[in-house]
Write a structure and sequence with these properties.
heterodimer, A: mainly beta, six-stranded mixed beta sheet, five-stranded antiparallel beta sheet, B: 10 strands, globular
Chain lengths: 112, 114
Amino acid sequence: QKEVEQNSGPLSVPEGAIASLNCTYSDRGSQSFFWYRQYSGKSPELIMSIYSNGDKEDGRFTAQLNKASQYVSLLIRDSQPSDSATYLCAVITYTGRRALTFGSGTRLQVQP
Amino acid sequence: GAGVSQSPSNKVTEKGKDVELRCDPISGHTALYWYRQSLGQGLEFLIYFQGNSAPDKSGLPSDRFSAERTGGSVSTLTIQRTQQEDSAVYLCASSDGGAVDTQYFGPGTRLTVL
């Protein structure tokens, strides 16, 4: 079982719709959770971080964390073609090393 | 403010040669990380420096890989006797090393071993 799992996609949504990206993780000791966006040929760019159960909103983005279910999600409201990218879920487990463990990413396509 | 910088942006080398990749972290960041991203492998951790502590080298794939961080700032990742499987994008990230430890990535170095 992979430590951080994501559906590779592509996830295709029409412009203006809500895109929902999901991630599960295996280590219950995980403490910090991050969503990065990566455009083709570019490096990962931080979108959201979340540490406590519940929702965290930042503009069009909402991160949701459920530690009991070991589940993290990212919602993108009013999706735009410029949101088309690969979204990487990353986790830090402080019981181990402090490096990020990444999922394989979900490719999002927003259709104009 | 200035972000993480890396050089060179692209490096093409021949199999068996040594290469050095450089990372300059965000000013004031005490933690520095190296990752590698290759097709079909995703993003994988290589090495982590935090202040003056001994580095966490647990992600280095072989003893051909080494890294150092001078003066708590700039870091150099060295790959000796490069192999074709070393071809990847090498990414550096830095953080303030605090409890939150949000990592910010540089633009990466694309390494191609012929």
